[in-house]
Design goal:
This protein has a four-stranded mixed beta sheet with strand order 3-4-6-5. A two-stranded antiparallel sheet has the order 1-2. By secondary structure, it is mostly helical. Helices cover 61% and strands 4% of the residues.
Length: 546
């Protein structure tokens, strides 16, 4: 009779439905508001982007996907300086390919949403079953915490607005990084990468100790017990799975790659190098994308600029203490000696590796904390059980460290979705202008005002002179110049010198900017194309300018 792993419980099905509902929540809000206001959804569904620009990162992802659809490899479309097509990322490349087959680009990208939901849910369930087998209550608590953990003080400070604005925001940012389900709001590559880390660790355990791993009750993936007669064959499949999961996790989110390498190195040392060769295989898988990103950051001008731009610095010690302190008090009680069990060693190393990655990176350091909810969930549930606290109080505690934070984020997105933000919604006139630029305008780069400029590359495939907070050089200075031009705040001579200095061939004035530029630009303008309240200025060839 074939071996079958434990079926999903009703509680796990409820958590899956909650995760799917959470993932779809922003999309439903945005599409409903777009229908009510007769605007077009841009495809951005994230809450925070570069420099606080809503949806900025998703619009960058869509720009890469559109560029990859044409060239195979993507370039930086947020500069008019020639940028090489050097970027290969699996999700964006496949998204671009789907758009070439006829799907709209936003729809092609949103197809990854259910993939992220399923990947995160299966990873949480597998992780919980490996820790607690058929113990349903403990297993359910682990899944809930792994997916929906939100630091309690972050939720409290956000709701009642305690402390300074900066401190509250930093604490909110910490809570947002720990919330695994939060990555489904616009950051699906990160969600899938987080899910691949426990998958890689569980596969590594089977590769290192196939007999013990197969004998554990509630085996994570429901696989048949390994044959004792062929240990190499029993190791080969899990080892290949671990290497592939590590490679993809690192490729989709490099911070997870660094974390995995630290875990594998720690396991090798802990096991006195007995398994060093086996662990080198998944470590190599995680290292290959990191080497690729390192080369990009040191050889390509656009990637060099982005990799040295510190958008999210390390959080102050007080923020880390306030965010992690209450959680650590519970998790410490769950600590125990691994006693040679691979997954127990890996779990403790995972916690340490997150902080090693955090302090080893100068830019985007808080991203290293993503995925930390998985080991914490197991430690917290174990600690609660060892303290012999009532199960009812435990259920209340799980609710307190999940629901308030989720409710705050939901309320925040409701408020954001109601505003006519150009990053999310395009008025009809703006959309028609962008369609004309995409399909009929002469070749060349675009100069547009902010924040409208950030939408241009993903909608047209055209590069812009300024648009994204850390992919456009000297973003703030350039944004001020571009916005002054489109407000009509530049005198003709200065406006003409400025436009010539950008190297743009097209200027797009969206409906939020009503100044007429033809008089200011004078002989530079070859033609003007009006689409209601939006205008596209095509600059005349140099030979025809007087």
């Amino acid at each position: 009779m074939p071996y079958r792993g434990p079926r999903a419980s009703r509680a796990e099905i409820v958590l899956l439905a909650a995760l799917a509902g959470w993932a779809l929540f922003p999309l439903v809000l945005l599409l409903a508001h777009a229908a009510q206001t007769h605007t077009t959804f841009t495809g951005a569904d994230g809450l925070i982007g570069a420099d606080g620009v809503l949806g900025a990162d998703q619009l960058q992802y869509l720009a890469w996907a559109r560029d990859a659809a044409t060239h195979g490899l993507a370039s930086d479309l947020f500069t008019l300086t020639p940028s090489a097509h050097v970027y290969l990322e699996p999700l964006f490349t496949i998204t671009g390919a789907l758009s070439r087959l006829g799907l709209s680009l936003p729809l092609a990208y949103l197809l990854w949403e259910p993939v992220g939901v399923i990947a995160l849910f299966l990873a949480a369930v597998a992780w919980a079953r490996r820790a607690f087998g058929y113990q349903l209550a403990a297993r359910t608590a682990v899944v809930a915490l792994a997916l929906f953990l939100y630091t309690p003080l972050a939720a409290l400070f956000s709701w009642v607005q305690l402390g300074s604005g900066r401190f509250s925001f930093q604490l909110y940012l910490l809570g947002d990084e720990l919330l695994a389900a939060g990555k489904l709001w616009g950051y699906v590559p990160s969600a899938i990468a987080v899910a691949l880390v426990p998958a890689a660790l569980l596969a590594v355990e089977r590769a290192l100790d196939p007999g013990h791993a197969a004998a554990v009750r509630g085996l994570a993936f429901g696989l048949a017990p390994a044959s004792r007669g062929n240990l190499w064959a029993a190791r080969t499949g899990p080892l290949a799975a671990a290497a592939l999961a590590s490679l993809l996790a690192s490729w989709l989110h490099p911070w997870q790659g660094i974390t995995l390498i630290v875990i594998f190195a720690g396991l090798a040392v802990w096991r006195r190098l007995r398994s060093a060769l086996v662990l080198a295989v998944p470590a190599l898988g995680a290292a290959l994308p990191l080497a690729y990103y390192y080369v990009l950051g040191h050889t390509d001008a656009a990637w060099k600029l982005a990799s040295h731009y510190e958008v999210i610095p390390r959080l102050p010690a007080l923020v880390l203490l306030a965010g992690f302190g209450p959680l650590a008090l519970i998790a410490v009680a769950g600590l125990s000696r691994p006693r040679g069990v691979v997954i127990e060693q890996a779990m403790l190393l995972w916690v340490g590796a997150c902080f090693v990655t955090y302090f080893a990176n100068d830019a985007f350091a808080p991203h290293a904390l993503q995925g930390l909810s998985f080991p914490f969930a197991v430690l917290a549930v174990r600690g609660w059980r060892r303290l012999r606290l009532p199960a009812a109080i435990g259920a209340v505690a799980v609710a307190l460290v999940t629901i308030p934070g989720l409710a705050y984020d939901a309320r925040k997105f409701i408020r954001v979705a109601r505003n006519p933000s150009v990053e999310y919604y395009l008025p009809s006139a703006d959309e028609r202008a962008l369609q004309w630029v995409r399909s009929r305008a002469p070749a060349g780069g675009v100069l547009a005002p902010t924040p409208f400029a950030i939408v241009v590359p993903s909608q047209t495939g055209r590069p812009v002179w300024v648009g994204h907070g850390y992919w456009s050089q000297n973003y703030f200075a350039r944004a001020r110049q571009a916005d002054a031009l489109f407000r009509g705040a530049m005198r003709p001579a200065r406006a003409q010198r400025f436009v010539l200095s950008t190297g743009a061939s097209l200027l797009i004035a969206d409906c939020a900017h009503h100044a007429t530029l033809k008089r200011a630009l004078g002989p530079l303008v070859g033609s003007v194309h009006r689409f209601g309240c939006a205008e596209v200025y095509v600059l005349a060839p140099r030979s025809s300018r007087r």
